[in-house]
């Protein structure tokens, strides 16, 4: 069955602490994401870029930076992603900073409720993104989307998608985590999030990690991948605003993507936090597109 893909650009760094992620969608287009996916027999439509408020670059108010603007962007993302899912298409959200995962995943959760499907979310990231206004050291909302999705956040964000909480913490698997703020650690523990941090990956290997993260999926499961490019080791992916050493290697990342592809269940994707202003000759964008290609079935050999 031919798969129908929609690219949706969300060019904003509204939730981030560094400028530049707003240029991420264009960098992925420069890295030929559409033609590369089409070379695998996929039908791909580029919906262009969403429009939202510009970044006012203001200090936090009551623990949140740019809350009205973040809300506006996430509402736009929510509607765009939900519309593509409604048409039976697979949306790829080209970020933009990771605060937009809130709009995207709340749309996926809404779609799953409407269609009676189960949801599994793989959150590939160096950070847990489980901060609240009380815990955050910066007020940057790109550190809060998972908490907001789980109902911990300001009213206007947690209500996007029409149900609070938008997701059950049990539906999420976090992979590659290696930077979590002190108070955030306690909250992750209290909410019983399933986290495969880099120590787990070091000890058990990426294969075992992914077997656990993908366990119990069935044909009625919608698999969503939220891929923050800072998941990758900064040696191979320098073009992100929040580099944390010690991430997955190129081969570990490829294995992760190939095992997701093997399930045949990938139904929506976010690619977040690519920052061309901090990149070297677009190499991080090219790597991101290379990994996305693996998510859609690129492999060295014909697999039996």
Sequence-ordered SSE layout with sheet pairings:
Layout: E1 4-10, H1 24-30, H2 33-38, E2 43-49, H3 67-86, E3 90-95, H4 101-115, E4 118-124, H5 145-149, H6 155-158, E5 172-177, H7 182-191, E6 194-197, H8 198-213, E7 221-228, H9 250-263, E8 266-272, H10 283-295
Parallel strand pairs: 1-2, 1-3, 3-8, 4-5, 4-7, 5-6, 7-8
Instruction: Classify the beta-strand content into a percent band.
Output: 15-25%
Q: Please write the CATH class name.
A: Alpha Beta
* Rg, Å, rounded: 17 Å
The sequence of SSEs as H and E is EHHEHEHEHHEHEHEHEH
CATH architecture annotation: 3-Layer(aba) Sandwich
Query: Which structural class fits the helix and strand makeup?
Result: alpha/beta
- Under CATH, the topology can be stated as Arginase, Chain A
Main beta-sheet strand count, sense and barrel state: 8 strands, parallel
Strand order of the largest sheet: 2-1-3-8-7-4-5-6
- Please indicate the count of domains: 1
Low-confidence stretches: none
Count of separate DSSP helical elements: 10
Helix content percent band: 25-40%
């Amino acid at each position: 069955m031919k798969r129908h893909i929609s690219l949706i650009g969300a060019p904003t760094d509204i939730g981030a602490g560094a400028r530049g992620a707003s240029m991420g969608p264009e960098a992925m287009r420069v890295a030929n994401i559409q033609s590369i996916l089409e070379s695998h027999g996929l039908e791909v439509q580029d919906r262009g870029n969403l429009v939202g408020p510009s970044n006012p670059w203001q200090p936090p108010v009551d623990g949140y930076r740019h809350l009205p603007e973040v809300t506006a962007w996430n509402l736009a993302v929510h509607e765009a992603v939900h519309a593509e899912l409604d048409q039976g298409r697979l949306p790829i959200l080209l970020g933009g900073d990771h605060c937009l995962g809130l709009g995207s995943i709340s749309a996926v959760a809404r779609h799953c409720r409407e269609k009676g499907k189960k949801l599994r979310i793989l959150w590939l990231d160096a950070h847990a993104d489980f901060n609240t206004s009380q815990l955050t050291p910066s007020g940057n909302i790109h550190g809060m989307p998972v908490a907001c999705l789980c109902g911990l956040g300001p009213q206007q964000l947690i209500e996007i998608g029409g149900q609070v909480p938008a997701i059950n913490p049990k539906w999420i698997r976090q992979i590659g985590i290696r930077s979590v703020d002190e108070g955030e650690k306690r909250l992750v523990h209290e909410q019983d999030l399933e986290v495969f941090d880099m120590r787990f990956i070091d000890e058990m290997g990426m294969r075992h990690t992914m077997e656990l993260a993908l366990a119990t999926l069935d044909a009625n499961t919608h698999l969503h991948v939220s891929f923050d490019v800072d998941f990758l080791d900064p040696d191979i992916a320098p073009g992100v605003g929040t580099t944390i050493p010690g991430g997955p290697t190129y081969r570990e990342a490829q294995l992760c993507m190939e095992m997701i592809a093997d399930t045949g269940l990938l139904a929506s994707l976010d690619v977040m936090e690519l920052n061309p202003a901090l990149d070297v000759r677009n190499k991080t964008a090219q790597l991101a597109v290379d990994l996305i290609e693996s998510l859609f079935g690129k492999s060295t050999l014909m697999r039996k």
